[in-house]
Specification:
The protein has about 425 residues and is an all-beta fold. It folds into 2 domains: about 100 residues, Immunoglobulin-like, CATH 2.60.40; about 240 residues, 6 Propeller (Neuraminidase). Helices cover about 5% and strands about 60% of the residues. Strands 1, 2, 3, 4, 5, 6 and 7 form a 7-stranded mixed sheet that branches. A 4-stranded antiparallel sheet has the order 10-9-8-35, with no helix packed on it. A hairpin with a 4-residue loop joins strand 29 and strand 30. The protein is elongated.
Amino acid sequence: MLALLVHVLPGCRKDKDSEGPSVTILVPGAGAQLQIPGEFTVRAAVSDDRQVTSVRFTVLDPQGIPVVGSASVAVDAASAEVERTLALNDEALRSGAYTIMVTANDGANESRAYRPLSVIEAPLRLRAVYAVSAIGGQTAVLRIDSTGAAAPFTTLDQDVRHAVLSTRSRALVIAGDVSGPVTALDAELGTVRWQLPNTNAFGSTFFTGLDRIDDDRVLVARADGLLSAHAAFSGSGFFTASALDGRYPRRHAVVGGLLLSEQPLIAGSGGRLVLYTAYTGELLAERPLDLVLAGFAALDDDRVLLFGERNGDGVVQELNVELGGGWEPQSLSGQAIRGVASAPGQVHYLATSTGLLRYSYSTNTVQSLSGGPAVEVIARDAVSGALYIATAGQVQRVDAGSGAVLQSWAVTGPTVAVLPYYNREP
């Protein structure tokens, strides 16, 4: 009897399920293409030697990050065809090779099948333009919608020196001056998402710079020499670096994977252009700099145009970032450059102390678009090509070809930034 039980019991033990279900994507076919916003149907055949319990549909972006997903669909059968309609309606998504992933589960194991999907980004649209102004010790934000209608967006009880906007993160980031914090607002709702405290011990400007260094990150510069990269959406930190001894960081840009940092002396004159790695903040090199910078424009991964001021004159310099050599294609006598807005074809619009200029790098020519009041701030609408400029007491929409004023809006107090906001990054 004992011998019989020894032979019978192993035959009653249930085999362990070690294999996942079979998954085959039937629809869409290879080479499918989708214009955002849009919908598409995914159909998959699944089977298992026991039973498939559930199927889940997901779309991955080019970095493998899920951008669309569905809840698990119950199957509870040995085989089935399952389909779901998925929508790609996030207009912030960019063109590229996306991936459909179908995951089948049998209760013990999962199997996946993949199918490439070519995605075409949504047509670029201007949603609004934000004008950020300082009014006494407060910050006022005016929202100008795509039709030109203007309305107050929010007022913050803090001072302001800089502001940037990330369309991808839907974040309007404002840096205080002497006492105010860095405050990131939801660009749709106006609510505060995150803040960085102002720990000023100097009684003068504390946040000396605020720049977008890519679609997702902003760089905060402080008078105590610290510069830190943060996610525009959440404020989470990427790295913190330090300026050279005796200097403070002021204006920044990324060129060819390098972070360029303008660093004036804390006491005295004479600047340096300091190079860091763009993603870790590691100090690499430094270059002499005799300008007060107003902006950068990359020519390629190795060369950059520097726009700025020297002794009241506007200057355009070309610099080889890694090697340090370059030349000075333009010097604008008595026309100090305050801001730059770049257009395709290396055309650059310059806000100067005497009006608005257009500089064409290919021909190294400068054209006056408007003279008169100083232009303090400039931005370009990437959809229409029109310019937004700030002069004393007003923001204007200007034709980039003729310099003619198309619309204007009154503002109270000096405007520190004019920021276009799109449905996706240009």
